[in-house]
Amino acid sequence: MNPLPEDMESALTGSQSSRASLRDVHSINPTQLMARIESYEGREKKGISDVRRTFCLFVTFDLLFVTLLWIIELNVNGGIENTLEKEVVQYDYYSSYFDIFLLAVFRFKVLILAYAVCRLRHWWAVALTTAVTSAFLLVKVILSKLFSQGAFGYVLPIISFILAWIETWFLDFKVLPQEAEEENRLRIVQDASERAALIPAGLSDGQFYSPPESEAGSEEEAEEKQDSEKALLDL
C-alpha cells in the first residue's frame, strides 16, 4: 500500500492538534473558576484582608503594651497620682517617660488611620513612624537621665524601639506582598474565566474529524487491482 500524500498527513496532524487544544480548554471547570472568583470577591467585600487586620491588631498591642509598662512605672515610683503629676504636669524631657507613651500614641494613630481607615498600600506611613520613633529614642537615650531611674529606664525605650521596627518588617514583608499576590491570583482567575467563556459549550471531539485513513488506502488498493487485472487480460 502506498503511503499517504504529505498534504493529507499534515491535515490529519492539524485536526488531531486542534482536538487536543480544545480538550485542554474544556478541561477548565467553569464552576470552579466562578467559585474561586467569588471567594476572592468576598475577601474584597470584607474591606480589609486578614493579614492587614493582624497588622492593625499588632499596632494596638504596641500602644497597650507601652501604656501598661508606663502605668507600672508610675505605680512603682511613688504612686500613680504623684508620679503622673510629676511626669505630665511638671514634664521634664530628661527624666519623664510620658513622651515615650505619646510616641506610642503617635504610632497608633498614624498607622491605624493609614492602613485601617484609608487602606493605604504603601510603606511610607510606617516608615515615617519608625523613623520618628528611632530618632526620638536615640536622642532621648543620649541626653536624658533615664538609666539612673532603674530598670524602666532601659525597658521602655528598648521595647518601643523594637515594636516600631517589628511593625515596619511585618508590613513590608508580610502585608503588602501577600495582598499583591492575592490580587495577581484574582486577575489570573478572571482572565481564565473570560477565555473559557469564549469557547462554545456545545463543542465536542466528535464534531472535529478527518477522513479515515482506511478509505484513502482502499481506493488505492482497488486501483492497483484493476491495473493488475487489465495487465493479465492483455497477456
Automatic annotation (TrEMBL):
<keyword id="KW-0472">Membrane</keyword>
<dbReference type="GO" id="GO:0015485">
    <property type="term" value="F:cholesterol binding"/>
</dbReference>
<dbReference type="GO" id="GO:0005765">
    <property type="term" value="C:lysosomal membrane"/>
</dbReference>
<dbReference type="GO" id="GO:0005789">
    <property type="term" value="C:endoplasmic reticulum membrane"/>
</dbReference>
<dbReference type="InterPro" id="IPR019498">
    <property type="entry name" value="MENTAL"/>
</dbReference>
<dbReference type="GO" id="GO:0140284">
    <property type="term" value="C:endoplasmic reticulum-endosome membrane contact site"/>
</dbReference>
<protein>
    <submittedName>
        <fullName>MLN64 N-terminal domain homolog</fullName>
    </submittedName>
</protein>
<feature type="transmembrane region" description="Helical">
    <location>
        <begin position="149"/>
        <end position="166"/>
    </location>
</feature>
<feature type="transmembrane region" description="Helical">
    <location>
        <begin position="96"/>
        <end position="116"/>
    </location>
</feature>
<feature type="domain" description="MENTAL">
    <location>
        <begin position="48"/>
        <end position="218"/>
    </location>
</feature>
<feature type="region of interest" description="Disordered">
    <location>
        <begin position="200"/>
        <end position="235"/>
    </location>
</feature>
<feature type="transmembrane region" description="Helical">
    <location>
        <begin position="55"/>
        <end position="76"/>
    </location>
</feature>
<dbReference type="GO" id="GO:0031902">
    <property type="term" value="C:late endosome membrane"/>
</dbReference>
<feature type="compositionally biased region" description="Basic and acidic residues">
    <location>
        <begin position="225"/>
        <end position="235"/>
    </location>
</feature>
<dbReference type="GO" id="GO:0030301">
    <property type="term" value="P:cholesterol transport"/>
</dbReference>
<comment type="similarity">
    <text>Belongs to the STARD3 family.</text>
</comment>
<dbReference type="GO" id="GO:0099044">
    <property type="term" value="P:vesicle tethering to endoplasmic reticulum"/>
</dbReference>
<keyword id="KW-0812">Transmembrane</keyword>
<feature type="transmembrane region" description="Helical">
    <location>
        <begin position="123"/>
        <end position="143"/>
    </location>
</feature>
<keyword id="KW-1133">Transmembrane helix</keyword>
<dbReference type="Pfam" id="PF10457">
    <property type="entry name" value="MENTAL"/>
</dbReference>
<feature type="region of interest" description="Disordered">
    <location>
        <begin position="1"/>
        <end position="22"/>
    </location>
</feature>
<dbReference type="InterPro" id="IPR051869">
    <property type="entry name" value="STARD3"/>
</dbReference>
